[in-house]
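Let us work through a complete example step by step.
Step 1: write down the sequence.
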Amino acid sequence: MKRLLVVAMALSPSFSTSVLQPTPPMGFNNWSAFMCGLNESIFIDTARSMVKNGLLDAGYNRINLDDCWSTMERAANGSMVWDTEKFPRGLPWLTKYLKSLGFIPGIYTDAGKKSCGGYPGAYGYEELDAKTFASWGFEFLKVDGCNMPAGTESEYKQVYGKWGDVLSKLNMVFSESAPAYFAEAGNLTDWYSVMGWVPKFGQLARHSRDTLVFNSTSYWPDITGWDSIMFNYGQEVRLARYQKPGYFNDPDFLIVDHFDLTMDEKKSHFAIWSALSAPLIISAWIPGFSAEEFKYLTNKDLIAVNQDSLVLQSTLVSQDGTWDVLTKSLANGDRLMTVINRGNSTASITVPFERLGFSSLGPVQAKDLWTGTQWAAFNQVTANKVPKHGTAVIRIGGVPRPLVITPTGMLFNTFSLTTLTTTPKGLSWANSTAADGQVWQTKDDSTIRPLSSPSQCLTDVGHGKVELEKCTGRDAQQWDYLYSGNVRSQSSNWCLTETAEEKVVTAKCLYEDNTQVFGLPSGVEIITK
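Step 2: predict the structure and record it as tokens.
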């Protein structure tokens, strides 16, 4: 498996969407804080606060309206109509005002017959509505997926494809909610299918649940704010292969002022989304933020990671129930280590260089992106005193030579979440424990090797059997990682498979089947055909 030449991938003809939005959007949306209680003053006060407190200067330049901005009926000519009680000076006035401050305005519609809040949907009105929104001054459109006539994957593809065609002619950023309506199914084939086509039509796609709204206990009484963040993060890490410059997986809004989050959890939310190069869209009452909240949201080092031109999504090195360790490469050759403390007490963790994807020859320069502290690290990098539900983010650079990276981390089934594991008893799919036998190097020669025994290669020995054998460079030890999530043997053209008994085998490649779709470390070459 060769290291990914990201620029080449971004220009691949398989991804035809123009790079209208090369890095993740940043800004504000009203939904989580206000839901249908939006009005003109909220957006005016929010915009002024964002300017005054440095959010606009930090890059948060989008202000988006969500559902419920319209009247309950269309005009006689079929056009949408804004609610004059909520927006007495009109939406064209509001977009002009926001642009005068330096913001880019966005708006919401729904692909179905009615919006999620019961307002007119855009089904059958796509071209008319797009032109209307553009004429009002909007340059970003979120298209939700409630109340579709049939609700099938093929119908969503047809309708969202139509939206993609219409919006591309208007140079309007397209946020797609289609994947969220297929997540959490017993069979994830449709979810994977939708995730496969949304990058062709738009610039970002919300893939799963909403993050919690302000009155979330009325909807999800048993889910905490931290649960919500971890759930959406857990969906996001399954999908790294889809992200590229110009398209971003969207784990939903930053709920900065949610009552159920501690300050460490709020900072974790921002740090994790930054490491994932996910959209940073705040949905909260910004004028009410504390100085500490403005400070962490404008952290230049973390925003630089989020906006890095490679926009690689951080991927899992290991999980053990307490610690999640993730890595990715940055455009200047640096390596990013992100460590999430899911435990219930402050603790420290040390990660060897090999797990981070580079050799232990010489020191590296490490920088804590929260504190700005820098130090020379030898053989390992330590995240010190990470608080309960806190997240450490450390940027690592080679001294004096650039790092030579081998994509390294978990190889896991994105349905069952079991991890490819080697022990003295052999290969299996097992729950994550962070053992060296669950951390895999994906080499330039297309081999896959466990950190516990790097001279051995994952080998297709024929007749559906897979074993670890001494690396010799033969075809049976070379594997391709496909855009579909399949890991395909170059010798047999069969795909790595998890059986019902959690055995590691190869079998005829199926279409995005639960048993054959896997997550690999970011930086691995992705075969798009």
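Step 3: interpret the result. The first strand starts at residue 26 and ends at 29.
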